[in-house]
Amino acid sequence: MEIVRRAFLQFMAGATAASTISVRSGRTEEIGKPVRVATGLLAMWQSTAWLGAEAGIFKKYRVDLGVPLVAIGGPQAAARLIQGDVEFVHTGVLPVAEEVLKGNDIVILATPTTEFPNQFVMTQKEITALGQLGGRKVGVLSETGQTSVATRITIEKAGATATYLPLVTFDRIFSALATGEIDAGVLPVDLRFVGASRHGWNAFPIYEFGAPSIFATTRRLIASNRELVMNVMRGFVDTIHVFKSQPDLVVPLLQRYLGIADRAAAEELYRYHVPVFQKVPKPLLGNLQNIRNVLTAKYPAAASLEESDISDGSFIEALEHDGFIERLWQPAESRR
Question: What's the whole-model pTM score?
């Protein structure tokens, strides 16, 4: 069965094909207006937009970017983009795929990191195996988000049927686990080591979809102001370069973003993340079949979902083709 909106997506692809490589669209009047970003999670691997804004990187490309909505949940972030409350989101592939299958306008521009162990089911210290979570309370972010679905799959694969409590943020999950309100909860690698050292919690990597976090916008914005989207992507790619190459600048900012007071712990976490950020963050979605498998029961059209239905790689391809990314990584003296 053909994907809902495929005809629309093909129309939009045709409308923008002529400007795939060009970074000038003639629309400059909106460049100075504020650009808003929402994130699904408060995590280092979804910090790129915030970090670039705080470090002033996006302003180099005439973009006044802010991140007013942080850690609101993947499905909620995607919904706020579609509603027009923000222009870009950093979330997971699953919420994007589900919105496209609903017939909504959202498209992936980049995958800043490779897939890596970044989230864990953390359990009280007396629970030493996931199979012991049968009938227990498990804290998750939401009912339908990518992280929450992966958590349920992980526990079910261990043979347990748990009760899941949507707590919206990792901080709330951490607190509920610390007070004993829940028996287990999903936490990012940012908090995994803290929980183990401070409370003796056990950690179990969650099931991976083979689908990393993504940065997305709408096809409507691409069609109306391609130059703005290109400039945002320039700032996004430049921020990844700064993340990987300037720890003295980045680590203190990330300490503030994540609320990590211990500089040594922040540096350790930073070193853990540096290799997984991609110099060329093309929207490669890994094993899309896993996404199809999760969504097909609810959306039969998911069986024929393709990367082109939910992603637009033309911006990263253009930045790679015109040498922008290569120039970022040249020694400073050679760029003068």
Answer: 0.77
